[in-house]
Amino acid sequence: MTTKRLSYANVMATIAVFIALGGGAYAALKVPKNSVGNKQLKNNAVTLHKIANSSVNGNKVKDASLTGADVKARSLTADNIGQLGLSNLLGASGTATNDAAVTLAAGICDRSVFSANGVQPGDAVILGGSDISALNNASISGPTVSNINKMNVTVCAGAGNPVNQPANSIQLRFDTLR
Question: Model pTM?
Fold first, then answer.
């Protein structure tokens, strides 16, 4: 039967382990307030798992610092958007006007470019109609935004009702969501 004796090397190794572990714990508890910033954080170090009932409050993420590019595709549900509130998603609102003349024979459709101050590529556009009597028997649909302040809209003349409007004469009310 052999008896184990403590050697100098074993004692020093044990002390070194306690110092290493204790020093890390001490540092974790004694880091000065507000001493960790953007430079110290690794990429993807901060995550938000939920919007509702999240343990992450407004003090953890800088206001207006997150954009649509920061949101993973298909990660938001209708419930999340409801919690955000529609007013937080509203973009531009106003009146769009046709850049060029819109001349369509009865029953014909074509895309037209409208100036719409404040719209941005990627905006979802909601059209609210037009006060132009020439468009009473026309259809306006499919608004898309491919350039800043420009909206592409499909205008269709009704059967038996041609559309012949000069530039800047068609006014469409719109709202966008971002």
Answer: 0.51
